Amino acid sequence: MSFELDRIEELCRDRGWSRYRLAKEMNVSPNSIGNLFRRTSVPSVPTLRHICRALGITISQFYGTDGLTVTVTEQQKGFLEMFNRLSPGDKQKVEGYIEGLLAKDGESGL
């Protein structure tokens, strides 16, 4: 399999997503995702952009696996700015809320 397909699998696994869930998040048929993996070729740039949008990451984050360089989207930057203005107690509440949302969806906590 290509690096890109392995990385898609890794990112889905990290989120507790199946290929079916990825297809739903992308608003494409599950067969489209299945075909992508059956061909085992490198996905096109537009396809990778679509996958990254569904995963909530940038192309830079997709390829940045070393953890040293992190690029955040404008939405993520806005959340971080708001989070940084919260009191320590409110930050704990936000973290608990997010963990609750993830647990509700059957995903593992932070």
Automatic annotation (TrEMBL):
Gene3D superfamilies: lambda repressor-like DNA-binding domains. It comes from the Bacteria. SMART domains: HTH_XRE. Residues 8-62 form the HTH cro/C1-type domain. It holds the Pfam family HTH_3. This is HTH cro/C1-type domain-containing protein.
